[in-house]
Structure formats: C-alpha cells, structure tokens
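Quick one: structure tokens for this chain, please?
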Amino acid sequence: MISPAEGNAQEKGSLLVDIERMIVLQLRNRFLWMSVGISALLITQLTLLQINGASGRSPFGSGMSTFDLLASLMLMIECVTICVMLLSILSESALVTAWRQRWPGRPFSYLAAGLSCMPAQFIAALVLLLPTLYIHRYPELSAAQNISIPLTLMQRFLLVFLAIQVAGNLTLILRWFTPLPRWLAALLGLCAYWGFGFWLTWSSYTDDRFMRFNDLFFYNQLSRHIDGFPELMRSRVVLDIHRDFLNLFLWLLGAAVLTTLLWLPRAALETDRRRRQGVDTSGLSTEQADD
C-alpha cells in the first residue's frame, strides 16, 4: 500500500516528467523556429550593416549609434519571446494532438502545459541572445567608458522577459477564470504588456527617476518611424541601469510569481477533476469546448 508521502512524491515526479515532455513538444513547433530564424536573419543584417559602417564600406553611412543598435537588437529578441508565448498558449489544441500521438496512455496536463511556456520562451530567446552577446561585445567601449554592452543587453533582456511572463500569466488567468476564447485572452494580455511598456517609456521620458529605462522598450524609437507618435527619447543616453535595475527586477519578479500562483491552482484542479471523472483531457472535443 502506497503511503500519502510516497503518493505525493510520485505525483511531483510525474508532473516534472510531464513538464519536460511539454517543453519538448513546444520546441518541436516549426513556427517557433521559423520566428527564431527570421529574427536571426534580421540581427545578422543589422550586425553586418554596423560592421560595414564602422569600416567605411557601407553606402548607408557610418552605421547606427550604440543606443539605436541595442534598442533594435532587443526588439528582435523581444518579438521572438512574445511569439513563442503566443504559440504556447494559442496552439494548445495542436499540443494536445501531439501529446496524444506520443503518449496516448498519459492524460494531458493543463498545469504542465502552462508551466512549460516559460522554459520554451527562455530557450528560444537564448538561441538569439548568446550569439548577440558574443558579437556585440565592443571591448573598446568598455575600456573607454566602463560600459559592458553584454551586461547591458542581459539586464534589458531579463526585465523584458519578466514583463512578458506577467503578460502570459494574465492571459492564462483570463483563460481559466473567464469564458473568453484564448485568442481574445492573449490579445488582452498583449495589451497589458504594451500598456506597461508605453507607461514605463513615458515615465522615463518625463521623470528623471526612471531615466535609465528609456531604451528598455522600443517606444522611444517609434517617433522616427510613425508620424504623429509622441517623442519619448531622452536627449541624454544612459546605457547602464545599475541599482535601478534591481528595483524593477524585484517588482516584475514578484508580479510574475503572484500571477503564476493565481492561474496555477485552477489549471491543476481542472486536470485533476477530469482525471477523476475518467475523461480523456486530450480529446479534441474537450479542446473545442474549451475554445
């Protein structure tokens, strides 16, 4: 007879196995790697333009400033992370089908599906981030101004990544606590993410306390490309975030943990309820009903 402690250990072990399998299924999505490939090509193009501009071989001038280049590189990595987040949430039916084909005897776990989103996003972003950190080291800038471009990129990526996690968790909260379809829940989650980014950029432009976050999101660059968009770029460029980074990091980390705790029990209860009822949670009819 299995004791309650042994049962809990087996349940935790099976959940970890389910999460690992879900991550594998997430990374097998060809649309995920398509978005990574497109972003990699754009990053390569920007890098070549910068190299040719610095060497005087580019017909487009001396290249982008370090400020504009970092903002553009971060935009590419940010877009990929958002794309993977949307694919993880919106393609749940395809994930269910793939799960049934590979592990037909194992019920589908909504809890594992939700928890596998963040690792999949992180892996996809790292595929782009690590080569970018290596190529754009700029040791001369570090020696002259004591500014580490790789550290600056990692700081910005971590903040943007946490903000995307909060948006993804808000989407899952709407998915589990409202009758909204997943596409509408994802749209509302994105609107919250865009609103936060615009608010932070606006605050960094109008308030000196937030000035170091002026280039965290791409909104300060949009006035150059969209007529009538408000000018949000500060005249003084600040690359290092320093201690201000820790404050925003803690706030976003706390928000990411809190929003995860809100949807996680509901997803676990739904999975357990269907297992107790003997319902195959990987059935297509069930997924259609959820939509």
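The longest helix spans residues 243-276.
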